[in-house]
Amino acid sequence: MTTTDTSDLLDYDEVVERFDPVLGLEVHVELHTNTKMFCGCPTTFGAEPNTQVCPTCLGLPGSLPVVNGKGVESAIRIGLALNCEIAQWCRFARKNYFYPDQPKNFQTSQYDEPIAYNGHLDVVLEDGEVFRVEIERAHMEEDTGKSLHVGGSTGRIHGADYSLLDYNRAGVPLIEIVTKPVVGAGARAPEIAKAYVGALRDLLRALDVSDVRMDQGSLRCDANVSLMPKGASVFGTRTETKNVNSLRSVERAVRYEMRRHAAILVEGGEIVQETRHFDEATGTTSAGRRKETAEDYRYFPEPDLVPVAPSREWVEELRTTLPELPWERRKRVQQEWNLSDLELRDLVSAGALDLIASTVDAGAPADEARSWWVSYLAQQANSRGVELDALPITPAQLARVIALISEGALTNKLARQVVDGVLAGEGEPDEVVAARGLKVVSDDSALIAAVDEALAAQPDIAEKIRGGKVQAAGAVVGAVMKATKGQADAKRVRELILERCQ
Ligand code: ADP
Ligand code: MG
Ligand code: ZN
């Protein structure tokens, strides 16, 4: 791992003493509709390259697009959840540019008539403070294909020997959510940027409109940053950092850009408006392309698609059928589980709240669900270096393990082994129990045989117990547990020992 070269950066404390940052966050979310936005091609992730394409998404002459109704519905639901107004009437627009992963040479998007606009999202920061981020717009568009640059060391186009193109993703529905300029964040700008993307991800997950996997690109964030001298009101020139594909990277990228801008500005230099590329390994950004202006894209209304005019009845119906949203859920579980503000915040920042709630929904008692996610599973996530929700165990699977414990079929120790098996990809909890032979020995006759054997092996201890020294039973319990490989219920073993020694 390379370390960050900080010689060109200003110290962060000095940055926030001298400048006020302005942020602008653009988040692209890939909807998990079954089919693409303007054709019937499937959208399954990871399919063989160029197997999910048709004349429309390849932009062949004579093909005509048709809007995916589910895509529009998802866009409206997202808009409503973000407290936006929903357009009475809006159109798609062509955003013209030439790039090999965009076979039509234009992207079907929305321009001055987005489906949703003027909303906000309240973001809870780590210390519990709430920061309101204003939403400019949420509009519908389509994804591009993917380029794979082969040869060269970086995987980027420069230095590559050749490039491969996969159009499976071309035409997958995207919603772009753009904030208004975020002012007043001050020193907390990097934290606010991260918390906003996290809150948006939780919201989209609750709406069940997307897989919201930043690592797979179904949620992508571009972070715009500018600085103005402290107390000024005219925004500085912004840069737009792309390719920020984890929450942690959002925070790092914003902080890095603030420090880089500041170093240039204090030297009397000028910021170039450009896109920049974030490098995960070094935590630095590098220059991309000079920023196009809207005119460069020669936007014009899409003539092949009818306008979208959602009826007010439909919009209101969608509003009343929104699921429980994250802040509503937080309020409810805080009451139901009797959590202090601090406990609630800890669960939220550990990313455990939704997982616990889903485990409870799958039938587990709240305190047990909570204890598994915040202790054993949190340790597992930590040692793998992943977020809790990236662990390969579902709330339903955990609920099943918890049910097996309460039925007496598993001890806590065995249950951890079952969870290990699920995490190792050995299948459902019951399959792991069967395959690893992890059942509590609850059959008394098998236990009595083991108890009698242990008593016979330690006759002097058996004698003591018979003489009334019940505390001597501990050694025999240990021997039975050892003989049954820990699969016996220790309490029952103890009872049986005392019975056999009467
Ligand atoms: P583009 O097409 O250049 O990506 P958008 O309007 O889609 O432009 O997004 C720009 C984002 O940057 C928005 O979130 C906007 O609020 C924000 N923004 C605009 N001006 C500034 C600025 N000077 N500094 C920081 N952010 C800005
Ligand atoms: Mg944009
Ligand atoms: Zn298609």
Structure description:
With 502 residues, the chain is α+β, with helices and mostly antiparallel strands. It has three domains: 6-313, no CATH class; 326-436, no CATH class; 444-500, Arc Repressor Mutant, subunit A. The chain is 38% helix and 19% strand. The chain is built from 16 helices and 14 strands. The chain has helices spanning 12-18, 69-81, 189-207, 247-266, 312-320, 326-336, 341-349, 353-361, 366-384, 395-406, 412-423, 429-436, 444-457, 459-466, 473-483, 490-500; strands at 19-30, 85-86, 93-96, 106-109, 116-124, 130-142, 146-150, 162-166, 173-179, 219-229, 239-244, 274-279, 284-290, 300-301. Strands 2-5-6-9-1-10-11-12-13 form a nine-stranded mixed β-sheet. The protein has a three-stranded antiparallel β-sheet with strand order 4-3-14, with no helix packed on it. A two-stranded antiparallel ribbon has the order 7-8. Strand 12 and strand 13 form a beta hairpin. Helix 8 (353-361) crosses helix 10, helix 11 packs across helix 12 and helix 15 crosses helix 16. It starts with 11 loop residues before the first helix and ends with a helix. The mean pLDDT is 92. The protein binds adenosine-5'-diphosphate, magnesium ion and zinc ion. Zinc ion is lined by residues 36, 39, 41, 53-54, 56-57, 171. It catalyses: L-aspartyl-tRNA(Asn) + L-glutamine + ATP + H2O = L-asparaginyl-tRNA(Asn) + L-glutamate + ADP + phosphate + 2 H(+); L-glutamyl-tRNA(Gln) + L-glutamine + ATP + H2O = L-glutaminyl-tRNA(Gln) + L-glutamate + ADP + phosphate + H(+). One of its GO terms (molecular function) is transferase activity. One of its GO terms (biological process) is glutaminyl-tRNAGln biosynthesis via transamidation. Heterotrimer of A, B and C subunits.
